[in-house]
Amino acid sequence: MGPVCRGGRCAVIATERREIVIAGGGFAGSILARALHAEGRDLLLLERGRHPRFALGESSTPLANLALERLAVRYGLDDLWDLAAHGRWRRRLPEVGRGLKRGFCFYEHEPGEVFSPGPSSSRRLVVAASPDDDAADNQWLRADVDRFLFERARAEGVECREETAVEVISVPGDADGGPVRLRAGDRIVEADLLVDATGGSPLAASLGAGEASPRLRTNLVYSHFAGVEPFERAEGWPDSPFPERWSASHHLLEEGWMYQLRFDDGSVSAGFLLTGDPAGAAETVFASLLGRYPSLARQFADSRPLRPVVSRSGVAYRRDLAAGRGWLLLPHSFAFADPMFSTGIAWSLLAVERVVDLCRNGVPALGLLERYGSLLAAEADHIDRLLVAAYRFMPDMERFAAPAMVYFAAASFDELRQRLLDPPTEGWCWEGFLGTGDGRRRLFEELDERCVSAGVSGSLAEWVGPAIERWNLIGLLDPRRRNAYPVDLEDMEWRAVQVAAGLGLDAAELRRRWPRLRSPDHLSAALA
Ligand SMILES: Cc1cc2nc3c(=O)[nH]c(=O)nc-3n(C[C@H](O)[C@H](O)[C@H](O)COP(=O)(O)OP(=O)(O)OC[C@H]3O[C@@H](n4cnc5c(N)ncnc54)[C@H](O)[C@@H]3O)c2cc1C
Asked: Residue ranges per domain, the chain?
């Protein structure tokens, strides 16, 4: 028991004690809680709001699916296995809203002009992420997904509380040690470890993580809509590896870019990321941007918002520390730059795997927390380099292709490696997101340096092909593809055989393992 004072009034409140407190019941907090509970840890999951609640961060990727599959197998969380592929999700969890995502599409628009892919399809880039609908990624309807995962946590015996905002009372000093003291609703809780899964809330500041300057500064206007026409191929467009409506669609504009994510029920999540400061009400800004681009205006002509169109200024943020004595931040509490390449969900899940690993034998010592924090900082820098280059070259597709190719080479290389190879001793999760810990770190650094020196009209077209060659297993920049890259498993196998030694395999072994790309079932055996 102890006295707690607020607004000049003091009361004596009972103090609870837990090994681990997770603040924030988004998907990351809930999955982490379930895995830690499966490991026998004593914990509390606290959510400020009440599910279902709206959240952004909807477009998943193959690397996110791999992390979900590993978490499913390692901690016996079967539903995560189902969430990792569109077919499984649709069949086994039909009540949880989602959308088919076959890949990424990018379109370069000009104000006042109807969109055209241009000669040699130079204004359109299509990259498939899966060979068919069944194995495809998903757009997550976050209100549904987050509620589902939070309820699963509760059903499995995790102690969960909603409408319970966490505030920090004190963190242990270097000399005295001791627990983190928290106010959780009307109670006091002491924890050996606080995990901040609140996604960019002020909680991190009260733990001692100061604000750092993000490299990007953008503003966002967004909502969910009904009645949005698909941005389909018009007659005469080159072939596409999949129906483009089932993608994360990126429309590159003079003012920034627009995302469109379609759910299976026909609703669409759409928003503009803007480099300038838009004046006026969010709905007016949204409408006037549509008005400048005839192909987008046509798509939204008969649409209606399903919730108010709202704006958010200063989308990007960054903290100067990701962990300290008695606490750590999940990625979305530490840094966010931009949703351009859908990196958030995959990065968060990778960090969830790490935190469970760190806590397997109890609360980790400061040295381990610091290692976690350094890796997160390196990864945030790595992601920043990519996104800063993307913004510098937008909306010109020919120049924008350099950061895009760097991203797709790095991400597809990781996917292939994680599916084909046995996990390293510490597990894939400690390898560093998108190659932060290997030669791809230098690749991203060089992209960053060169995009600064290229200036306002320079191009990296000559540089990018040779630069990504070691990681380019999906035929990126092959002119025969005309900027539309399918998942061509035969072609990929041929390319992978050429670099088999770099993967630590001989060609025969690589061929033997190749069927793993089609079926993730080998994972169960590898992790058992
Ligand atoms: C505009 C935008 C678009 C994005 N698009 C994508 C995308 O397409 N793909 C992708 O992979 N990622 C995307 N992201 C990133 C993605 O949103 C995050 O990676 C993801 O939401 C992280 O999930 P989380 O559970 O860690 O945090 P959140 O989803 O932010 O959940 C945090 C939870 O904590 C709760 N909370 C807050 N404060 C407190 C408190 N004091 N006490 C208790 N609870 C609290 C909140 O109510 C919330 O439920 C996007 C991000 C933004 C900003």
From this structure: 1-97+141-211+317-364, 98-139+217-313, 379-527
Q: Which runs of E-coded beta strand occur in 216-309?
A: 219-226, 248-253, 256-262, 268-274, 304-305
- Residue 528 is predicted with a pLDDT of 44
HSE of 422, CA atoms in CB hemisphere, 13 A: 7
Q: Is the peptide bond before 52 cis (omega within 30 degrees of 0)?
A: yes
DSSP 473-520: -S-TT-GGGTTEE---HHHHHHHHHHTGGGGT--HHHHHHHGGGGT-T
ipTM, interface predicted TM-score of the complex = 0.99
259 CA closest ligand 1 atom index: 8
CA distance 43 to 21: 6
Give the model confidence (pLDDT) of 143-166 as tens digits.
Answer: 999 999 999 999 999 999 999 999
What tokens does 227 get? 């009645």
Please give the single-letter amino acid code of residue 167.
E
CATH of domain 98-139+217-313: 3.30.9.100
First to last CA, the chain: 45
Query: Ligand 1 pocket, 241 CB below 6 A?
Result: no
SS3 249: strand
Q: Which of 142, 182, 216, 332 to mutate to test the pocket of ligand 1 (most atoms within 8 A of CB)?
A: 332
How many whole angstroms from its chain centre is CA 304?
27
Q: Which atom of ligand 1 is nearest to the CA of 197?
A: 26
